[in-house]
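Support request from a user on the community tier.

User writes: "When I paste my structure tokens into the form, the page sometimes reloads and wipes my input. The last time it worked, I copied everything first. Here is what I submitted, just in case something in the input itself triggers the reload:"
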């Protein structure tokens, strides 16, 4: 009986530790999904709103319009922590009369390790820019040769693996480059602007999704 009384608490501690570890692993394997309108409608203390981003209707449901001047959301969340592979997707509508450089989504540190979804605007068109900084090495996948008209809804995806980066627009691969990626371990998230509050996005965003795996186009969100 004495042996049992000694080992019972130890066994409880072991099972508790294993259970917590399993729960942590399960959480790390889950997608992060942000319906951006819900971030406004169900604001928590983890969310900071800058300016006056507005809920607007879209073909897909409520979206959020950003004015390109001072509208943004900051989230105390870091969904990329520890991931060596992931896919970031976004359904959005870039509008005219915005600045040339527009940072739409930043996850990670302000100027250290980070990932961004960006666009560049030329006249009435835009082109995609997927950017990563990892261990001091920066790489942007962008070319003005791949233009798309403003004022329409698009799906973009940025696929990151331990040795490559790939961008997609509406399910079609645009750019692919080799790159040694190390997981981003800390930071937060900004939507609608770069984290240091420059290069604001003008347009609307319906949804952002981060998957902790390498997705193929047939697995992307449907536009």
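"...and here is what came back when it finally went through:"
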């Amino acid at each position: 009986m004495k042996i049992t009384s000694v080992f019972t608490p130890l066994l409880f501690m072991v099972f508790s530790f294993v259970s917590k570890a399993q729960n942590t692993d399960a959480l790390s394997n889950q997608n992060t999904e942000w319906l951006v309108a819900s971030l406004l409608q169900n604001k928590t203390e983890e969310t900071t709103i800058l300016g006056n981003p507005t809920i607007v209707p879209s073909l897909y449901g409520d979206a959020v319009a950003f004015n390109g001047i001072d509208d943004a959301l900051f989230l105390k969340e870091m969904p990329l922590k520890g991931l060596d592979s992931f896919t970031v997707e976004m359904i959005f509508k870039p509008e005219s009369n915005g600045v040339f450089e527009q940072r739409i989504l930043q996850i990670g540190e302000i100027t250290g390790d980070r990932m961004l979804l960006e666009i560049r605007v030329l006249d009435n068109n835009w082109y995609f820019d997927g950017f990563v900084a990892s261990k001091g090495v920066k790489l942007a996948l962008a070319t003005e040769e791949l233009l798309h008209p403003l004022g329409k809804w698009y799906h973009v995806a940025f696929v990151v693996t331990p040795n490559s980066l790939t961008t997609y627009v509406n399910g079609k691969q645009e750019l692919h480059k080799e790159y040694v990626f190390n997981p981003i371990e800390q930071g937060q998230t900004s939507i609608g602007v770069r984290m240091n509050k420059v290069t604001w996005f003008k347009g609307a965003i319906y949804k952002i999704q981060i998957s902790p795996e390498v997705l193929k186009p047939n697995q992307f969100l449907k536009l």
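Agent notes: The reload is a front-end session timeout and is unrelated to the input. Helices lie at 2-28, 36-41. The two ends are 64 Å apart (CA to CA). Escalated to web team.
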